[in-house]
User: Fold these one by one.
Assistant:
Number 1:
Amino acid sequence: MKNYLSINSLIPSFNKALNIPGDKSLSIRWVLLASQAIGKSKAYNLLESDDVISAIVSMRKLGVKILKKKDCYEINGVGLSGFSHKNNLNLDAGNSGTFARLLCGALAGNIMNVKVTGDPSLSKRDFSRVVKPLELFGISIKTTRNKMPITVRGSKFLRPIFYKEEKGSAQVKSAILLASLNTPGQTIVKSKISRNHTELMFKNCLNIPLKLKKYKNYEIIKVEGKTNYKGFNYNIPGDISSAAFFIALTILANKSSIKMKNVNYNKSRIGIIEILKKMKAKIKITNIKNYKGEKVADISVTSSKNLIGINCPKSLNTKSIDEFLIIFLLCAKAKGISKFIGISELRQKESDRLKMAARFLKSIGINVDEKFDSLKIYGNPNLKIKKKIIIKNFLKDHRVFMMSCVAALTLGGDFEIYDKNSINSSFPNFLDLLKKLGAKIDNTHLN
Ligand code: S3P
């Protein structure tokens, strides 16, 4: 059945301010951690997307009371190892790798069987990365070849672990840290640098005894488990991974500018800004503030016709992991060759994003050289698309969909883009915000 939206005109110039919805990583962490607190927690500006709703619905099934109030969500935490539910409970993590993997850690002290399932995209993803460390704690995990469904049964006799996390995966690090909360003694993770929201919440919201030492390429985190903590309130800042699509849209649009206020500006998330500054994009960061250990800032962007390609340092990879698709699109319009190495983790996301990016760029007339772990993009500053482009993204990857919309609105062509519902994972009002900026989007072929 035909079920696509069409875009066949460029976005007219705009000069606007936008509110970017709450950060997904912080929203999921707040739901998981507030659920295990003692007493009440409130979150303002919680992201209301399917990934976060999966977390809320699952916590409710685990016996946690969660209310949606007028301007906030309220959770009545059950304390550590306090979930209560029938045996063989089924939980659906939907499309969310973050929620599914962190949940496995949060179930460490829960001694009933919980079966975790997900959608077709999540069911293809690898769970060995969390199964390995979690089993060391004494958690029982059953999977078929490390894929979903996963049955997790925690233990009353958990033992603390020392683990070397070598992928630079915040999901793995956080699953371990969540398990450590329920485990007596000191858990130690030697982790390649990755986003640090869990550690910041532990320290600044939960007062968990956590020691952290930073080295050049890794850090050592030590957590004392079994420390109950009180409920905490959180005002979730905007998600830089969502802002990324509007940053790119504005750079590529004609004579436009945008301001996005109160966006999470955590150092471990701003690879896109560092890369785009090197590419000579016009981006201004103002009003940087500290909020519970997180940085938040206002991001202003103006259009620029003189992007240059980038030889991207490997050290920026984990900081930009969710933004690479849209960065690649910007490289297509930049002068010169852009090179990215050490990026095979992109193949482990909601879809194989390295393959999707290469296929997309080729379809719009850009030469690329795709290897297992790298991508070269031969930019063309005069790039204009003049043909019909059909984007079917069979694993329904939200970021592939959003990147395609940005391309259609700035590079021309006649686009048919399928899988609109994918945006519900992370950015349900994405199309409304595009329309607010003046984008013409034809919905007549959407069911
Ligand atoms: C996330 C970590 C990243 C990122 C994902 C969100 C998190 O995954 O891609 O969208 O909230 O911890 P990895 O840590 O597996 O790279």
Number 2:
Amino acid sequence: MMAEAGNAAEAVSPAFSLCVYCGSRPGNTAEFAATAQAVGNWIGLHGGQLVYGGGHNGLMGIMADAALAAGARVIGVIPKALVEKEWAHTGCTELHIVENMHERKRIMAERADAFLALPGGIGTLEEFFEVWTWRQLGYHNKPIGLLNMGGFYDSLLTFLNSAVKTGFMNEWQMDLMRTGEDAASLIEALVQAAGTASLTGRLDQI
Ligand code: AMP
């Protein structure tokens, strides 16, 4: 099922489509919200499209509102169970209400040229790791970024590097994702990489 709002962002096809995973909570300092807002704003100002989980709470809602205000198309993809809890952002340009989490994640991945994780909790981590795993298995070839704002992901990166040292991961896997502390430069790098990559994949087979 899809609800679509008619607005000016409809008329022009977006310059790029970025899927962003981020917290359904706002975090404990105003810097998290400011970053989510800056990401939404950047996407809108650069003629992009935001694909995200379709919620209106926490960083998700802040980012989506900023993207809409800056003129971006915003595609929300949300399972019907979460809509029943009234967690959906009804202002999205397209709101896809889907049967389950699996369908949601496949559609989000299909509609994006690149993926970015902002600070978040277990939902964000699960989505980030899944899309990273799909990339290593060749289900897609789209760039993936982890925004390490203020060192939020330092301890995770330390752990991942220790998994490389202990032989459970390798550098090739680490190189499949980019990290950066500055949102604008990281998004620019992802968009540029998406423009040069062959985005063919097998997302229909996940
Ligand atoms: P978390 O990091 O645990 O806050 O979860 C955030 C991620 O999980 C988002 O990227 C969403 O895709 C999904 N998610 C978690 N909670 C919600 C919610 N209330 N509404 C929509 N999506 C959610």
